[in-house]
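Query structure, 450 tokens:
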């Protein structure tokens, strides 16, 4: 009853820009973590599949390296490993190096349920299967057929496949992008999906599955979100959650008719709201200084902090979100549609739901353009812009190649970040013009801005 683990680690790691097996994870490389996990899960043999010519693995690794020609697929790696399995192996754990943060308890649980009735076991996190996958040797033999892929081998096992619930979200997470690595490193420094890890995993989602968000979940998320810091404890925000399809469509029409507002089960209008302050002043025989620009700013910042917290909380619970600044296209009409009282406006909306898209992460400009020590350093600006341009072009290339474009359209692979910003906010842009009435509209909504 010998168990073997096969660890595919033959990829180039081109998206990551580094050999995944050698990524540093809390004092160990990714491959050392995976091999240790496989051993802890009772695997006597660990076969690591590497492309010929790849960098050497750390010395003393308790594993056998199986070489494959460069450029093959995962199934080719598995076939190469298959021919190297010892004859007494009865169970195989396929453990891609991407899943280096999966713990031994998950692997053990998968291997433990293999038997006459269960020939394939895969981990289930939040109703979605992930990796690693345990198979009886007989089932794994299916990978030997010409052109076989693991997914089909699993599918063919039909009723002999068992999904094993796990609390470990890393069964879903690939180490594909530098943000994934940073998220993994943060998680190892704290709990899985620590808040900081979650931040690195952020992407705006613009397509959603139709199922509604339960009211109690939305309440929990907004409740958590409103624990953001708030200027002088004024709590100058409110959220209008729009779930009714007709009301959402009406909101969408006022927000450039963005399709994700129609498809998301929730459109949350995140409002700067001085109404309660005004009422508090009224109760105490005075009136609100609603003309104050400072107060407008405080309410707007308060709302933005709540909004960001809401997005982060939603992402932490597996939802996707996208902020909708187009909510300021027609602020008076949107306020009327949502029945906002005086002294309130929608700073931005937010679509929320279970994501149905998988956008290429945008990354961000180099940190050197954002974090300065002691004094702002303008000497770095040109280099930062050049790197931001390169990052934007790389994102465009990937988005075109892997997603067929952005929201159904090809993205220019020539334009860098700086050119895009110059188009958006340069003197010849009419984008700012489209919001030129905003100040007057905010005044009419009860913000003095003086
Ligand atoms: C205040 C605010 C308003 C935004 N408005 C919109 C919007 O109206 N429509 C949209 O699709 N995305 C909108 N976004 C999302 C940004 O386009 C997105 O955050 C940015 O391109 C970076 O991509 P990422 O969030 O996937 O990293 C908005 C973001 C913010 C912060």
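Result returned for the query:
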């Amino acid at each position: 009853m010998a168990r073997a683990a096969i660890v595919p680690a033959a990829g180039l790691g081109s998206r990551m820009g580094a050999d995944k097996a050698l990524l540093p994870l809390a004092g160990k490389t990714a491959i050392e973590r995976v091999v240790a996990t496989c051993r802890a899960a009772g695997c006597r043999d660990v076969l690591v599949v590497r492309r010929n010519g790849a960098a050497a693995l750390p010395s003393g690794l308790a594993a056998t390296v199986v070489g494959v020609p460069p450029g093959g697929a995962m199934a080719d790696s598995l076939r190469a490993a298959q021919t190297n399995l010892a004859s007494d192996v009865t169970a195989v754990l396929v453990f891609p190096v991407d899943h280096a943060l999966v713990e031994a308890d998950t692997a053990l649980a998968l291997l433990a349920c293999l038997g006459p009735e269960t020939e394939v076991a895969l981990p289930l996190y939040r109703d979605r299967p992930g990796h690693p996958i345990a198979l009886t040797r007989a089932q794994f033999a299916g990978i030997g057929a010409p052109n076989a892929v693991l997914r089909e081998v699993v599918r063919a096992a039909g009723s002999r496949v068992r999904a094993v619930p796990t609390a470990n979200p890393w069964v879903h997470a690939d180490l594909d992008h530098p943000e994934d690595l940073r998220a993994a490193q943060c998680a190892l420094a704290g709990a899985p999906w620590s808040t900081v890890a979650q931040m690195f995993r952020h992407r705006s989602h613009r397509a959603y599955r139709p199922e509604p968000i339960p009211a109690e979940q939305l309440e929990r998320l907004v409740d958590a979100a409103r624990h953001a810091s708030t200027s002088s404890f004024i709590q100058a925000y409110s959220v209008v959650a729009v779930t009714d399809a007709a009301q959402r469509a009406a909101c969408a029409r006022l927000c450039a008719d963005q399709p994700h507002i129609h498809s998301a089960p929730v459109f949350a209008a995140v409002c700067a709201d001085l109404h309660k302050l005004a009422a508090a002043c009224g109760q105490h025989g005075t009136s609100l200084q609603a003309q104050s620009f400072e107060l407008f700013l405080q309410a707007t910042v308060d709302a933005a902090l709540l909004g960001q917290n809401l997005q982060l909380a939603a992402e932490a619970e597996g939802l996707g979100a996208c902020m909708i600044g187009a909510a300021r296209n027609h602020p008076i009409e949107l306020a009327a549609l949502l029945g906002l009282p005086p002294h309130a406006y929608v700073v931005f909306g937010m679509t929320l739901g279970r994501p149905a898209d998988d956008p290429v992460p945008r990354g961000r400009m180099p940190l050197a353009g954002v974090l300065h020590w002691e004094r702002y350093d303008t000497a770095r600006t040109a280099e930062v812009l050049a790197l931001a341009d390169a990052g934007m072009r790389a994102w465009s290339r990937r988005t075109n190649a892997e997603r067929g474009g952005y929201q159904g359209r090809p993205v220019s692979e020539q334009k860098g970040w700086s050119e895009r910003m110059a188009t958006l906010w340069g003197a010849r842009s009419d984008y700012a013009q489209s919001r030129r009435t905003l100040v007057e509209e905010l005044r009419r909504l009860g913000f003095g801005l003086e």
